[in-house]
Specification:
By secondary structure, the protein is α+β, with helices and mostly antiparallel strands. The chain has helices at about 1-10, 40-60, 110-120, 145-160; strands spanning about 20, 25-30, 35-40, 70, 75-80, 85, 130, 140, 165-170, 175-180. The strands form three sheets. The protein has a five-stranded antiparallel sheet with strand order 1-2-3-5-4, sandwiched between helices. A three-stranded antiparallel sheet has the order 6-7-8, with no helix packed on it. A two-stranded antiparallel sheet has the order 9-10. Keywords: Kinase, Transferase.
Length: about 200
């Protein structure tokens, strides 16, 4: 199936299969996999980092805490699918161990330390970076951003309006308060993704 997705990902990545969009990648569910399409070269760097991290965690016996990254090229990456965490009030939230105790997997703190110290990982506690496995435990699904990539590439691109930053405000079309993709300080288009703004 992975080979089929690699060769025909364009035909599988349709609006019906769309499950999410970040600042650098757009994500589609295909059977038991996700296809992450790069919207910016930073997305490709994130995918390469995810492949490296997953392989390193496999060597350490910690890979069960991560969505397996099967394939990466310049356009896409393919990972195992996990149900993403629900948003709270149309926005993501910070994972708080005291509130999420039943979802915290064994060796979670060890993995956080490894990601920080060995991979310079960034934004490790944002709920948008997690899915849930069949036991209802947290699994990293978006784990390729590191501090260097963020500071040296993502921040300048966001400040220059090339990549979107997330703002929590009312959509001018559906009038729901939710996360909006905003491109620089002068962006006045306050439509949500559902109402047409990518």
């Amino acid at each position: 199936m992975i080979e089929e997705i690699i060769n025909n990902w364009n035909s599988y990545c349709t609006e019906e299969n769309f499950i999410g969009i970040g600042s650098t990648r757009k994500v589609y569910k295909v059977s038991g996999y996700v296809v992450k399409i790069n919207l910016h070269p930073i997305g490709n760097s994130q995918s390469k980092n995810e492949l490296e991290i997953f392989n390193a965690m496999m060597d350490k016996g910690l890979h069960h805490l991560f969505a397996q990254t099967y394939y990466v090229d310049e356009c896409i990456s393919i990972q195992k699918y996990y149900e993403p965490l629900e948003m709270k009030g149309n926005q993501t939230f910070e994972i708080d161990r005291s509130r999420e105790e039943e979802r915290i997997p064994n060796r979670y703190q060890e993995v956080l330390t490894l990601l920080d110290q060995e991979f310079d990982s960034f934004d490790l506690k944002d709920s948008s970076n997690y899915g849930l496995n069949s036991e209802g435990k947290l699994v990293f699904i978006d784990y390729g951003m590191n501090k260097t990539l963020y500071e040296e590439q993502w921040v300048p691109s966001a400040e220059n309006g090339i990549l979107p930053q997330i703002d929590y405000d009312f959509c001018t079309v559906c009038e729901s308060k939710k996360e909006l993709r905003m491109y620089g300080d002068h962006d006045r288009d306050k439509r949500c993704y559902s109402c047409g703004k990518e």
